[in-house]
Amino acid sequence: MCLPMAVLAQTQPVNDECVYATFLPNVSEYCSANQEYSNVGATPDPVFSHTCISPKFANGVWFSFIAREPAVSIRVLSGGQEGTMRGPKIMLYEACDKYVECSPGKSDISDEFLYDKLVLNRLYYIMVESNIGGEGSFRLCVDLLNSVKTPESDCKDAVVLCDKSPFVVNSLTGSGNNNNEIEQGNCIQDEFQSSWYKWTCDKSGTLSFVLTPGNNTADNTRFITDDLDFAVYELPNGLDDCSTKIRVRCMAAGANTTANGGTAPLNQWVGCNGLTGLSETDPDITEPAGCAIAGQNNFAKALDMVSGKSYVLVVNNFSRSGLGFSIEFGGSGTFLGPEVDYTASALDRFECDKTISFVNQSTSLTDPITGYSWNFGDGALPGNSDQFGPVDVTYVSFGNKTTALTVTTSRGCSVTKLVEFFINPCCRDTSTLEVAGLVTNVPCAEDESGSIIGKGSRGAPMYMYSLDTVNFQPNPRFLDLPAGNYTLYIRDQKGCINSVPLIIVEPPPGNRRCRCRHRSGAWRIFRIKWKLYSWHRGGNTTLVAERQH
Question: What distance in Å separates the CA atoms of residue 132 and residue 87, rounded to the nearest whole number?
Fold first, then answer.
């Protein structure tokens, strides 16, 4: 009896090759479902020189995204319900043949990677691989970020925060030159792997925040994450004097211990596992180590900041895993810093191959601005500038664009503003864009295993592909298609679109020319037919090649 192609086990992932990378159209706090992806059956990839820990380039699968912010955080999770992969590693590419950087691959069930030098509007590729023999399923999380703060492990060198933008810390590796700035009586007790952050309050109000461990899982009731502890201090003599700091909040809640010093079962302290921080609904000023006191929940009371006063936060990874964390701020109070602002204008309209002028309107009422860094993104001429401005820019490609201006002040403060806009197409009637489509027909009646592979030529590469003129993707392949009439659209970077009509054919009901299981249990492949069509100027479609096998 013939069976649909959908029930056949696919031994090779659909995103095994970079050219067929799974496109992630929206990576703002994106997380896949548990076990949604797998590298089982993946084949070797081209080997690149690298400085990270033991990438094998043996079983990677590929993803792609467009950089709409300057930094990206990528996590692969494969513990428990999230997946079965072991020894995951992450690699980042600017193109299929242009390796950028990779993660160290620290954990057997999870990995994280942070990169803060993205070229805005550029298409990037992610390769996820595992230990050889550790192939399996996994969960993928990708998040674009406005800013990244390099950790500092001494209070005197603390990172100066000038706004409440969220950020991610990739790793915590030491306690600094002054290796224990935790005073006697502090709930944290000892400084292990720490980072310090300081700020001055601008507008009085509350301050809350949430710290998320780098190995946080979707189900903290079943899996233990890193134990993050923290303390918040007031700095009565300003940002530069840590010697007189006054502790105002302290959080060290975590695992309960057994009589012999081991870790008690998670169900006895699950309320103190995972996220931690300051909450507007929590009454605690401090929570000691462990989770044995009624009401302990890993959160303390939000801070009431006062305008003009300075504060410092220390985050300590008690678990000593070397992994980092992310932080998101809330509350009504604000941090003192420069006001970053700029405008963009054009003589006629925003269109590729036309000049757009960027005018800087940034100011600082505190300390002087000492540096400007413009990021105009991929396809912009120029792509970057360190001038105050105005800066005149021409975009060679159309579409949604993001630009960024980062200002730095004399006290080490850094603030970034992003501006999004649309560049109209500049397609001309003389466009030479041509379209071709490779069709694989359906082998069984009422099956949905047909496919189309697009190929663009001439025009203005890079190409994007679509079957509906709405959802375009860089991956030229469309899978799991039923029989029917289709139109393949290809768009180039100038916004020109051309198309070719295609037909996926299925055999009549009852036709035996399909994949069937023999009594031996083996699958036998019968006739599969594909056709290659090409579009030419004037609207004619030519059948270029046809093959049966």
Answer: 9
The per-residue pLDDT for range 4-22, each reduced to its tens digit, is 443 334 578 999 999 999 9
DSSP per position, 217-262: -S-TTTS----EEEEEEEETT-TT--TT-EEEEEEEE---B-TTS-
CATH class of 434-548: mainly beta
Question: What DSSP string describes 159-190?
Answer: EEP-S---EEEEE-----SS---PPTT-TT-S
The tens digit of pLDDT for each residue in 192-202 reads: 888 999 999 99
pLDDT in tens, 320-362: 887 788 899 999 999 999 999 999 999 888 999 999 999 999 9
pLDDT tens-digit series, residues 164-197: 988 888 777 666 677 778 888 899 888 888 899 9
* CATH architecture of the domain with residue range 155-330: Sandwich (2.60)
Return the CATH architecture of domain 342-423.
Sandwich (2.60)
| Same topology between domain 5-145 and domain 434-548 | no
Rg (CA), the chain: 28
Q: Which amino acid is at 134?
A: G
Fold of 5-145: Jelly Rolls (2.60.120)
Rounded to whole angstroms, the Cα distance separating 396 from 386 reads 21
* Per-domain boundaries in the chain: 5-145, 155-330, 342-423, 434-548
Q: Round to whole Å and give the CA distance between 516 and 429.
A: 50
Token representation of residue 184: 């006697």
Give yes or no for a cis peptide into 382 (omega within 30° of 0). yes
Looking at the whole model, is its pTM more than 0.85? no
